[in-house]
Design brief:
This protein is an alpha/beta fold. It is built from eight helices and nine strands. The protein has a single domain (3-213), classed as NAD(P)-binding Rossmann-like Domain (Rossmann fold, 3-Layer(aba) Sandwich). Helix 5 (137-157) links the parallel strand 5 (115-124) and strand 6. Helix 4 (90-111) runs parallel beside helix 5.
Length: 239
């Protein structure tokens, strides 16, 4: 049995991960910012932590009593798009970067000392970092930052016996993606995503990406001349 902490555990992939780890008999600490949603899942976890990712004092206070962890899953985040690049929305950009990336610094400061030797830190990023997409300046930049953070941290945590797993999900059906107004090829359920993450983390894999029909296609596109993949993506985006 592992002691697992999951951020963003009240919806989407996070909630599906909570259900999976709880169902497999692990001790789970669920984190979220909505008190009523945390109350609704308290029977599926050993403890809940209430905090807003953009508020350092809330993070520090809520996590002060946490003891040793085997697995830390940093899953919480937001997705907002910049609809008019010429009229760049700096406030939206700052909000997404703060929620998805800057918050990880505060979480790691509070929690990394509590991850045991032999433990793992899991970063849920996005396959959107494989290739740029229109309107994704804020979201993609935040996730690209997560990729570098995870890959760099892996090197520095080797001496402490702590592993790092970076996850690149494709399109997953969640309350966030339900708002999307474009086609989402190879859409997977949150439960399927959670199972794949669970299996990969338990196998201590450093990198997970799925569905491979999408991620390998994006990787292939990234090898093409820029003018070619850009025209393909813009043609699809513009219908």
């Amino acid at each position: 049995m592992k002691k697992v902490m999951i951020t963003g555990a009240t919806s989407g992939i996070g909630q599906a991960l909570l259900s999976k780890y709880h169902g497999e008999g692990h001790q789970v600490i669920a984190c979220g910012r909505d008190k009523s949603k945390l109350a609704a899942i308290e029977n599926s976890c050993s403890k809940t932590c209430l905090f807003d990712l953009t508020k350092q004092d809330e993070i520090s206070s809520a996590l002060a009593s946490i003891e040793a962890l085997d697995i830390l899953i940093l899953n919480a985040g937001n997705c907002r798009y910049i609809d008019d690049a010429k009229q760049f929305d700096a406030e939206l950009f700052a909000d997404v970067i703060s929620t998805n990336l800057t918050s990880l610094g505060w979480l790691l400061q509070s929690l990394l000392p509590k991850v045991k030797k032999g433990g793992q830190v899991v970063f849920v990023s996005s396959s959107a970092t494989i290739l740029p997409f229109p309107r994704s300046e804020a979201y993609g930049a935040s996730k690209a930052g997560i990729d570098y953070l995870a890959n760099s941290l892996r090197l520095d945590l080797l001496q402490h016996g702590i592993g790092v797993t970076l996850v690149h999900p494709g399109f997953i059906k969640t309350p966030l993606t339900d708002k999307n107004d474009f086609d989402m090829p190879f859409l997977l359920s949150s439960e399927t995503a959670a199972t794949r993450i669970y299996n990969g983390v338990m196998a201590k894999r450093q990198y997970l990406h799925f569905p491979k029909r999408l991620t390998w296609l994006l990787k292939l596109f990234s090898l093409l001349p820029s003018s070619l993949w850009q025209s393909l993506i813009l043609r699809k985006h513009n219908g």
